């Protein structure tokens, strides 16, 4: 059974989240203060941590840093009352994997928890070589979410990055539009959407055209693939 | 004008002005003294001459020679005329210096006007009536004060050299003093110029001065900066505190309602509880939006975030998809070779835009009769970006449209739907903040379309 650490100081919320998680079922260790959580983090191991940002004593950010130092692979979901950009930046810098703003539906929380627990071990944790994916003169740094071509950094948005990553995971192989749509947009976008075509065009404009290359290819009716150019 | 230049100008102008004024006064006073002193000497000389005339009356034939010898030894470049009581010339010095105005002077001279002094060029002329025992004389003397003028010229040269020296010194001293006095103020002004009020943590002024007033000014200013920083910090955390105090209890109540809904066996109670939970959830969005709007409109929210609208919209879309897995979102970009730059905003509030998309997507989902929502990114030829949010369902009548973006407006189509009637009013405020517009349109008789236009 998956072990979840829950740290939330509001007693009602604390009890209801604990109850909902146990009903799944997960093994939950529910705490109400930062100090108690600090001790647990130092002594135990968890598959996921749900941390409130504003905790008495030690803040959720500090607990997250401590947890990520001890167990970098453990995903952290923050519960926050105020999701301004500055707090999010601090949260992600301290190692947060996801945010959920209060008030939330329990279903929403459970969906996020499930998604984080299902998430495969990040490539960067499989070994140092897996951190960089290279194809031709394109280099994709998974850890830093950066892409370089001919040693020049190409600024990509998260979905452009994800789209390129999906193509690079199958170098030279055809990847269908529906597969790309599913991998990058999940189930959020219907299959009739032309988002893939548009984003492939965005990628080409950033990655191919400035370098006079034609690496991202289309096979009409089948999908997309990457091809190295000879010479 | 810079303070340093002002001090330099005032100090040097005052010292130089006073020096030259003093020199001129000294020169004029000495010139007057010379004149007075020389005229007295001429008068003495006239008396002496008249006394000699009286004494050597008998030796009239030798008088001129004796007198001239006296004259030549006494004053150079001098003419003296002596007249008897009837104004007949009785003695004239041998000097050939002419007295041009002697007849006028003689005419004006009388016992009632016994002293006349005048000048002919640089020559001093005195006319005097002398009464001596039983004899009366009139005398006119004209002479050039060689020694007096020489002294005056010497004094003038000394004063000019002295004044020039003082002026030069005053300029150098003025420049030095101006720099010395203005340095702490200039340093203070430089530090103040470098202060950025964009940064919520304003640095204190680091310079120190041994001038009491300036040090006092620095300390007061640093106090002001500390108070400003405290105010910034308070305001920054105020939204977080308000949010925490309002939304944590909301989250607790919402979780209680969900729990109660799960436990109750009564379907109508279940529906009622879930509806109230949805209202609480909406209230959370409204609180977030209002706090973020208040921060943005008062300039406290961080500005200048570069964002891509499509990324924020897709994030919001994924949030809604999680809660409404049955809804299908059809996303289209028009044209297919969509220019990515159209989606970029350089001065955006990402939190508010996310709330905006939550509101518009939430509305589209709530009012869609076929659980389909169409989203269209349109790149118009006029550099504008239009986002279309479409859903099929009952539409608003003409009268209702006028109030669509007013707070607390609930149209006839919202009967039985949760909400407070604040979403679209907030959406408009968010778009106003970004210089964008929102319109409601019906492209088909049963299609609601919200157009969001970024220009």
SSE pattern of chain A: EHEHEHEHEHEEEEHHHEE
Question: What would the average pLDDT of chain B be, to the nearest integer?
Answer: 84
Cα separation of the termini of chain A: 55 Å
Averaged pLDDT of chain A? 86
Radius of gyration of chain A: 21 Å
Helix/strand-derived class of chain B? alpha+beta
Short précis:
The complex is a heterodimer of chains A (231) and B (455). Chain A contains eight helices and eleven strands.
How does the SSE layout of this entry go?
The complex is a heterodimer of chains A (231) and B (455).
Chain A: E1 3-7, H1 11-22, E2 27-31, H2 34-43, E3 48-52, H3 60-70, E4 76-80, H4 85-93, E5 98-101, H5 106-118, E6 132-135, E7 138-141, E8 146-149, E9 152-154, H6 158-168, H7 177-185, H8 195-208, E10 216-219, E11 223-226
Parallel strand pairs in A: 1-2, 1-3, 3-4, 4-5
Antiparallel strand pairs in A: 6-7, 7-8, 8-9, 10-11
Chain B: H1 3-55, H2 60-74, E1 78-83, E2 89-92, H3 102-108, E3 115-120, E4 123-132, E5 135-143, H4 146-194, H5 212-263, H6 267-297, E6 305-308, H7 309-323, E7 328-334, E8 344-348, H8 350-367, E9 372-379, E10 385-392, H9 398-401, H10 423-433, E11 436-441, E12 447-454
Parallel strand pairs in B: 7-9
Antiparallel strand pairs in B: 1-2, 1-5, 3-4, 4-5, 6-8, 9-10, 10-12, 11-12
Helix pairs in contact in B: 1-4, 5-6, 6-8, 6-10, 7-8, 8-10
What does this structure look like?
- The complex is a heterodimer of chains A (231) and B (455).
- Chain A is built from eight helices and eleven strands.
- Chain A has 231 residues and is an alpha/beta fold.
- In chain A, the strands form three sheets. Chain A has a five-stranded parallel beta sheet with strand order 2-1-3-4-5, sandwiched between helices. A four-stranded antiparallel beta sheet of chain A has the order 6-7-8-9, covered by helices on one side. Chain A has a two-stranded antiparallel ribbon with strand order 10-11.
- In chain A, strand 6 (132-135) and strand 7 form a beta hairpin.
- In chain A, helix 6 crosses helix 7.
- Chain A starts with a strand and ends in a 5-residue tail after the last strand.
- The model of chain A has no long low-confidence stretch (mean pLDDT 86).
- A five-stranded antiparallel beta sheet of chain B has the order 2-1-5-4-3, sandwiched between helices. A five-stranded mixed beta sheet of chain B has the order 7-9-10-12-11, covered by helices on one side.
- The mean pLDDT of chain B is 84.
- With 455 residues, chain B is α+β, with helices and mostly antiparallel strands.
- In chain B, strand 1 and strand 2 form a beta hairpin.
- Chain B has helices at 3-55, 60-74, 102-108, 146-194, 212-263, 267-297, 309-323, 350-367, 398-401, 423-433; strands at residues 78-83, 89-92, 115-120, 123-132, 135-143, 305-308, 328-334, 344-348, 372-379, 385-392, 436-441, 447-454.
- The interface between A and B is large, with 44 and 51 residues.
């Amino acid at each position: 059974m998956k072990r979840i650490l829950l740290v939330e100081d509001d007693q009602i919320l604390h009890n209801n989240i604990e109850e909902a998680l146990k009903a799944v079922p997960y093994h939950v260790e529910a705490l109400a203060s930062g100090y108690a959580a600090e001790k647990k983090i130092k002594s135990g191991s968890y598959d996921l941590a749900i941390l409130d940002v504003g905790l008495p004593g030690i803040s959720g950010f500090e607990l997250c840093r401590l947890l990520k130092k001890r167990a970098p692979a453990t995903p952290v979901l923050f519960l926050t009352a105020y999701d301004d950009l500055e707090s999010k930046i601090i949260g992600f810098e301290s190692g947060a994997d996801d945010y959920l703003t209060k008030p939330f539906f329990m279903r929403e929380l459970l969906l996020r928890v499930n998604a984080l627990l299902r998430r495969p071990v990040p490539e960067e944790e499989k070994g140092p070589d897996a951190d960089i994916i290279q194809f031709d003169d394109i280099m994709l740094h998974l850890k830093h979410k950066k892409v370089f071509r001919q040693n020049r950094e190409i600024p990509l948005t998260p979905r452009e990055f994800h789209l390129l990553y999906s193509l690079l995971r199958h170098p030279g192989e055809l990847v269908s539009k529906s597969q790309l749509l599913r991998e990058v947009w999940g189930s959020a976008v219907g299959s009739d959407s032309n988002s893939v075509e548009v984003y492939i065009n965005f990628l080409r404009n950033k990655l191919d055209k400035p370098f006079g290359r034609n690496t991202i290819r289309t096979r009409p009716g089948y999908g997309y693939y990457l091809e190295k150019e000879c010479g | 004008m810079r303070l340093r230049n002002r001090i330099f100008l005032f100090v040097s102008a005052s010292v130089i002005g006073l020096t030259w004024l003093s020199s001129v006064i000294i020169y004029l006073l000495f010139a007057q003294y010379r004149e007075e002193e020389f005229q007295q000497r001429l008068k003495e000389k006239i008396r002496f001459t008249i006394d000699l005339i009286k004494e050597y009356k008998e030796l009239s034939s030798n008088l001129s020679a004796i007198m001239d010898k006296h004259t030549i030894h006494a004053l150079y470049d001098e003419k003296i005329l002596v007249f008897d009581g009837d104004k007949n010339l009785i003695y004239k010095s041998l000097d050939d210096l002419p007295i041009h105005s002697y007849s006028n002077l003689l005419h004006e001279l009388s016992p009632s006007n016994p002293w006349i002094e005048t000048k002919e060029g640089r020559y001093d002329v005195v006319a005097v009536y002398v009464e001596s025992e039983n004899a009366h004389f009139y005398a006119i003397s004209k002479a050039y004060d060689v020694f007096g003028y020489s002294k005056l010229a010497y004094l003038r040269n000394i004063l000019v050299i002295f004044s020039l020296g003082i002026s030069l010194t005053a300029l150098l001293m003025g420049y030095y003093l101006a720099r010395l006095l203005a340095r702490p103020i200039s340093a203070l002004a430089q530090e103040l110029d470098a202060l950025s009020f964009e940064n919520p943590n304003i640095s204190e002024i680091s310079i120190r001065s041994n001038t009491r007033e300036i040090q006092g000014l620095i300390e007061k200013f640093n106090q002001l900066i500390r108070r400003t920083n405290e105010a910034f910090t308070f305001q920054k955390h105020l939204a977080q505190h308000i949010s925490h105090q309002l939304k944590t209890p909301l989250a607790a109540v919402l979780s209680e309602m969900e729990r109660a809904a799960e436990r109750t066996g009564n379907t109508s109670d279940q529906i009622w509880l879930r509806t109230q939970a949805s209202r609480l959830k909406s209230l959370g969005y409204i609180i977030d939006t209002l706090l973020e709007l208040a921060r943005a409109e008062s300039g406290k929210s961080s500005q200048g975030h570069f964002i891509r609208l499509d990324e924020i919209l897709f994030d919001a879309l994924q949030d809604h998809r999680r809660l409404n897995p049955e809804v299908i979102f059809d996303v289209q970009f028009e044209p297919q070779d969509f220019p990515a730059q159209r989606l970029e905003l350089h001065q955006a509030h990402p939190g508010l835009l996310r709330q905006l998309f939550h509101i518009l997507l939430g509305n589209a989902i709530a009012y869609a009769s076929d659980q389909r929502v169409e989203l269209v990114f349109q790149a118009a030829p006029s550099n504008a970006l239009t986002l279309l949010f479409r859903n099929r369902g009952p539409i608003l009548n003409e009268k209702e449209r006028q109030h669509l973006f007013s707070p607390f407006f609930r149209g006839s189509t919202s009967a039985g739907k949760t909400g407070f009637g604040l979403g679209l009013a907030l959406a408009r405020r968010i778009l106003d903040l970004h210089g964008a517009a929102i319109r409601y349109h019906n492209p088909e008789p049963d299609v609601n379309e919200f157009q969001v236009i970024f220009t």
